[in-house]
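Fig. S4 source data, part A: sequence.
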Amino acid sequence: MNSAQLHLALTHVPVLLSITGLIMLTVSFFIKSKTVTKTSYIIITVAGILAVPVYLSGEETEEAVENLPGVSEGIISKHAEIAMWAMISIAVAGITALVAYFSFRWPAVAKVSRLMVLVFSLATGALMVQTAHLGGQIRHTEIRSGSNAQSATGGENKDGTRQAGSQQITDKDDD
């Protein structure tokens, strides 16, 4: 398995786990369950651990796709920048969740750490969703908005020509 395959195979896991952990942690505030709270901490910590190979395989994956037709260097750059912030955020959330997991012996510490994990998880969830959205746009041109989608997918221009990547194609007969 090469790094591009690893990146694509694991890319959804930290996103889904961080959102699942956030939802469970939020629910735990209402139902007051230590089991649900601890489970959310474990899920957030695992999301942080699994985000590492996804992030580290991103650079080689970029090199594998950057010259493919329809791939936008601008979207790759945006994806990489947001991914860096998402990685930092999930690392902080994961470490905080791990500390919070072991803080139940001290109620004051447990309460503060729970709130900290919630705040970091909210930021992580937003960053993960944005990272995933931009990552999807790299190869799924149908989800791009505006002119990026048209030029990358070969949409028709006003003069009757079509744009396919950087080539302009005419549909007029030459006879």
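Fig. S4 source data, part B ends here. The helical segments are 3-10, 12-31, 34-56, 58-65, 73-101, 107-139, 146-153.
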